[in-house]
């Protein structure tokens, strides 16, 4: 078989510590069940919460799990975790600017820490992690979407908690989790778009009824108010529906010929 050692640690590949071949026994069944379970999430946050819980249940050695999200490659945040120690350990990485999670995200690598007491790669982070009782870690890049990144991080309180089996299953798990997250994000974006369309429709209906405008005239008025006040169209519509005011004007006040589109 060809030697793939030069590619170790790259995206979708085992870490440099991987030495063996994990057993595939029952793995396909387990991952099939996992895929169905993750798709049961009702939204992005529910899916993330399901991912971290399933990570602990599925990946050998994992005691705690968390998902880190980086927006625009700058803002780093722990979006889901199974325990507070995950958030504390993640915060240590964010504040020191170093650690296995950040390497997994930015360097597109699978990163394994077998024994935190013997680790030399991230001294500032290691000191804080040991203080939190973290003895081993395993981090996978979860997804890359434009400037947004994600990582799955696994934690254990004992050394050498993660072996080749953990990495093998973890890589497949991360792939399933990324697909589930993408699906949840698309559904959430669609739901928001439908909700915004309905909200704008309500606002248009109010203007049409109160001022005898056509649908196009009402929409033009909403857009004008959005541009003049530098406010999102959805916020203009929401404010109108909830308060009866449009850009500081009571709905009962006359709009004038220009607002009606008359005289053109």
TrEMBL record:
Domain of life: Bacteria
UniProt-listed InterPro entries: ANTAR, CheY-like_superfamily, GAF, GAF-like_dom_sf, GAF_ANTAR, WH-like_DNA-bd_sf
Region Disordered, residue ranges: 1-23
Compositional bias ranges of the Basic and acidic residues kind: 1-11
Domain ANTAR: 180-241
Keywords assigned by UniProt, alphabetized: Kinase, Transcription, Transcription regulation, Transferase
The name this protein goes by in its record: GAF and ANTAR domain-containing protein
Originating species: Nonomuraea corallina
């Amino acid at each position: 078989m060809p030697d793939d050692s030069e590619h170790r640690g790259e995206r979708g590949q085992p870490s440099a510590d991987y030495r063996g071949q994990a057993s595939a026994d029952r793995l396909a069944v387990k991952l099939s069940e996992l895929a169905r379970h993750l798709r049961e999430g009702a939204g992005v946050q529910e899916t993330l919460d399901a991912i971290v819980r399933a990570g602990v249940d599925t990946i050998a050695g994992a005691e705690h799990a968390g998902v880190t999200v980086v927006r625009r490659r700058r803002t780093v945040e722990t979006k889901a975790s199974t325990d507070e120690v995950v958030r504390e350990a993640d915060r240590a990485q964010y504040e020191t600017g170093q650690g296995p999670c950040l390497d997994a995200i930015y360097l597109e690598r699978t990163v394994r820490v077998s024994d935190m007491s013997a680790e030399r790669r991230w001294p500032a982070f290691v000191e804080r992690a040991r203080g939190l009782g973290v003895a081993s870690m395993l981090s996978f890049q979860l997804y890359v979407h434009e400037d947004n990144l994600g990582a799955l991080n696994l934690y254990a309180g004992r050394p050498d908690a993660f072996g080749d089996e953990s990495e093998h299953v973890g890589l497949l798990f991360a792939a399933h989790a990324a697909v589930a997250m993408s699906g949840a994000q698309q559904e959430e974006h669609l739901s928001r778009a439908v909700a915004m369309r309905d909200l704008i429709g309500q606002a248009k209906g109010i203007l049409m009824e109160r001022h005898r405008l056509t649908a196009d005239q009402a929409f033009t008025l909403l857009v004008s108010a959005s541009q003049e006040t530098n406010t999102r169209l959805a916020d203009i519509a929401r404010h109108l529906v909830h308060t009866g005011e449009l850009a500081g004007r009571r709905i009962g006040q006359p709009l004038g010929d220009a607002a009606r589109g008359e005289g053109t």
